[in-house]
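Chain A, query sequence.
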Amino acid sequence: MNLVGAINNALYIALDTDPTAILLGEDVGFGGVFRAAVDLQEKFGKSRVFNTPLCEQGIAGFAVGLASEGSTAIAEIQFADYIFPAFDQIVNEAAKYRFRSGGQFDCGKLTIRTPYGAVGHGGLYHSQSPEAYFTHTPGLRVIVPRSPYQAKGLLLSSIRCPDPVIFFEPKALYRAAKEMVPVNDFEISLYHADVVMEGSDITVIGYGAQLGVLEKACKKAREEVRR
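Chain A, predicted structure.
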């Protein structure tokens, strides 16, 4: 299964196991520009998988409202580069909803998915990696998978997490990364780092698409040290 297929499979399971789950975003009713939502509207209907206007602030605001009223809201921002019009809704509404009400209300059933990063020909408006802006915001979880297996397990955990999550998908790996992924329902903990390689001298930390590069660099460094 490739990474975009793993995302699609996770979305199918989320919608199938949770009758309150709703998927919304630009073109998701048609399967999305990267086909991550393909066939989902046909399976679950137009009331649960639907297109939105081209308005990222509106997508985020609508999703915050859905989540605050008890629905499981899965919103797609078509490219991470266009998440900035939704910045206020995400950092001042979604992230602070629970705290400003003293715990009386929350929108923890909110997940915002968005593809990030460069693919070599996207230009300045389709190649950005804005995840660092959101990691400085208390009340948000920022999740970035590195492989198809991780993408499926982490997305299902994010959708079921009691906190608002922004799920950044490395679009360079959508079809480039392939591995065995269980078709059944499973989750990966959001609370623990994944140790890819163990050593004794240095610690290398990364996330998302860069993990593949870092792993190769670490293996090369280990080989050169042993010479």
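The two ends are 37 Å apart (CA to CA). The chain has a mean pLDDT of 95.
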